[in-house]
Amino acid sequence: MKYSFHFTLKLKLLLGFGLLGILLLLVYRTMNNTQSVNSVHAAENSELIFPSMIYTERLKDLIETSQYLTTKWTLKGEPRDGKLLGEIESCHGELYDSLKAQIVGFVDKDLWNDKNKELYFKLTSVVDTLFTLQADIVDNLNTPEKFADKSNYSFRRYSVTDGEAMGCYKRAYLTATQLANSFRKDSREKLDIMETGFNESDNLLNIGMLIIFVCLIVIYLVLNYNLRKLNYLKEKIKEMSEGILPEVEVKGNDEIAEMTQILRTLISNLDETSHFAIKIGEGNFSTEFKPRSKHDVLANSLLVMRDNLIKAENEAEERKVENTQRNWASQGLAEFNEVLRNAGDDMQVLSNRVIERLVRYLDANMGGIYIVDDSDPADIHLELTAFYAYDRLKYAKQRIEVGENLVGQCFRENETVYMTDIPKDYVHICSGLGEADPTCLVIVPLKVNAETFGIVELASFQVIEKYQVEFIEKIGETIASTIASVKINMNTAKLLEESHQKSERLAQQEAEVHKNIETLKSKIENLEELNKRESVKYQKLHDDFENQAETNASVIQKLNDKNEKIKDELMTHQYILNNSAGYYELDAQGFFMSMNARLLNSIVMQYTELDSHDVRSYMLEEESIKNFDEGLKKLADGLIYSAVNKYSFNGKQVYLSEIYTPIRDEYNVLTKICVIAKNITHQIENVNDLNRQIAELKAENEILNNKVMALSAN
Fold first, then answer.
1. Whether residue 56 is found in the same domain as residue 149
2. Is 145 inside any structural domain?
3. Does this model's pTM top 0.70?
């Protein structure tokens, strides 16, 4: 086995210093004398100058550490680190106070010269200012909100990198370096004095010094060779301290060569780590990287940072999706509210617009609206009022019984039906390219306060997401409320038409009565003339007249009965009119927010005259104001209520039949109130006029009866 001998640095030093030790033994006595002379200088150097230099160097390191930690705190783009904050506070507090307490002992005992004292006082002043600026920067970036403030963050970042804090740091570091160099110079001067003493002793030992000189030359040559390698190693380490990863050449086989090889391995590892960090910075989180060991702090920190960045990216994507869905739903609610406000009182037009807009907005392929037909309580069923598919409206009459197929079951159970496994042959979607079965089916009841007014059915090739189903259910309440209002308006219009027809018939009957009265008057006049000429014929005519009067009385009684019936019907009409439609919006306290032109035209007001005014200030009756305040409580609980209120707008009295619908936010807090209102002043005035005419007719009948009674008496 070949033995490899290593002339190591340790062996070199042992041989060199062993020879020198032997020579030193020879000159021991001389060196002993020199030692006694220089002991005073050595004591001063070790007890005063060197400790002062050490404390000053520590203070300089503390300044540099504080600047590094503050810079890291400022530039770190992630939530604040409590450990890092503790280190900064420790630098500004106990570590700094401890160093000042150790140094002040030398200053108070007047052991330093005036120049070093002046540098020290200047240094502490600058350091205090620096630490104050750094503490201000840390305090102003200690929360995510302050960090997100761009102007605040830019100002602090500029201060710590190029501004006031950086300038103060440079002055403090330069002053600390000057103070440390001053002590280093004083130490060198003391050493020079000691060296002078040794030289004086060496003059007495010329022969020994000559031998020592020769030994030192040999040692120098040996050490110089190794020092060159150490300087080479130092230069490479210096380049690394500046952020450079240099190329390292390994020479020899001693400890320095081993250190160089270790440095080379370290540089290689740092190069791999830096490439990994660059990949992370570019967003490539799939790059393979393994730590050198479980104690590889930098590599493990980078891996943790990569995992945190991946997690943050995923969370940001989820928040983005949630915000997109929320914005989509809010925009849809606004659009559908506009569609419903402008739909008018035609159920067919309303259904067509709603289903067309709903299919388009959900990007579905087919949809239909079924309205509950409860005109006959014994035959309640669903009627298809609008059907939309592939960008085309299709009209088809279809009747669905309660409980029949999925639509009828949805109406009976009053719950949403969501299916992705649709029964075969349930529905087909046809286009110019053919037909196919849909992938997803959603059937939602249109209900308000547990009362269902219709069903909306949607089919799509694409899966309708959960948030879209929730959106359909939410607008279903508004659609149901609008359908209820339209049905009320249609019934009201129908009853008004019937009332108008009955009023016309009543007018015809009144005309016939007046005609009979006129005929009767003519007959009375003729009878009086005949009574003078022919008494016999008068009795006969008188009898005929009494029979006619009884007939007229019977007719009048029938007319009175019809009038009472019409009055009852008009009272019913008035109740129905109380639920007719209009539109304006109030805030949660009852102040006007917006209103449409139809309402403004009906009350002859401008928007600017009503905006931000309390609706109660226009109510003429205290009972209406009291009912409105009680109604606000119902609206806050999510209930709908209706009322007929008497208002005064610009001195003009107006009757409005109103339906109040609450709008609540995601926390079920009342945000505003939608009011469907209709001006029924004209109808109420017509009813009053009709009552007046009936009263006048009764008065005329009474006068006629009196005349008949008077004629009978004659």
1. yes
2. yes
3. no
